[in-house]
């Protein structure tokens, strides 16, 4: 892929990603957990990782690894928290309609030097 086509893809995809998040995230949050702010909090912590997971960035942004650490803290609050976090991320990915790259998902724990306390994968099997 040449630099020009990568740049134009980024220029057209990123505004769409942001618009989808602004419009649909409050709806998703209230649907998934009954708490509009829960998925919004998940998105705040996870969104800095998205550009890495969809291969727009070579390394995760500064806020990504810190966000994963915050999500790990949230995951320890109750037994269903890891599944709820996963579901929020799955819904965010679905709304953005830009798939995460499997190799990037697998490399994120090493890049951030952190273990995930919640499931995340291409299939997003949140209940397992």
Automatic annotation (TrEMBL):
For this protein, the record's InterPro entries field holds: Bifun_inhib/LTP/seed_sf, Bifunc_inhib/LTP/seed_store, Plant_nsLTP
Q: Which Pfam families match?
A: Tryp_alpha_amyl
Family of this protein: Belongs to the plant LTP family.
Q: Supply the name of the protein.
A: Bifunctional inhibitor/plant lipid transfer protein/seed storage helical domain-containing protein
Q: Which organism is it from?
A: Hibiscus sabdariffa
Q: Which residues form the Bifunctional inhibitor/plant lipid transfer protein/seed storage helical domain?
A: 39-126
Which residues constitute the signal peptide according to the record?
none
């Amino acid at each position: 892929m040449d630099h020009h086509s990568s740049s134009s893809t980024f220029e057209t995809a990123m505004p769409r990603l942001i618009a989808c998040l602004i419009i649909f995230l409050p709806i998703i949050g209230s649907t998934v957990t009954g708490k509009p702010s829960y998925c919004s909090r998940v998105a705040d912590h996870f969104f800095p990782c998205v550009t890495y997971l969809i291969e727009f960035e070579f390394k995760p942004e500064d806020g990504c690894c810190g966000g994963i650490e915050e999500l790990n803290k949230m995951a320890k609050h109750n037994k269903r928290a890891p599944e709820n976090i996963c579901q929020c991320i799955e819904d965010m990915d679905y709304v953005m309609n830009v798939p995460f790259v499997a190799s990037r998902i697998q490399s994120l724990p090493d890049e951030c030097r952190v273990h995930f306390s919640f499931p995340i994968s291409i299939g997003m099997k949140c209940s397992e």
